[in-house]
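Q: Hi! Curious about what Cx9C motif-containing protein 4 looks like structurally. Here's the sequence.
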Amino acid sequence: MSQKDPCQKQACEIQKCLQANNYVESKCEAVLQEMRKCCARYPKGRSICCSGFEKEEREREKFKAASKGIPPPPQ
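A: Let's find out. The predicted structure is below.
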């Protein structure tokens, strides 16, 4: 018997919001932020619904690290 995903409710809210707003993500920032908060509360891998948000966070961290080592473009 599997446990209920702790962030499933937020994932469903995202789907409802996106459907109601013709999949315009910017109109669903509040529910996306709630999902991020939920995912931050649980260890990685605990919520299958958070897998995309965990990947997004890894990409953001990679970009930050890379941008620190790159000098600004000449003007």
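A: A fun detail: Helices lie at 8-20, 29-41, 51-69.
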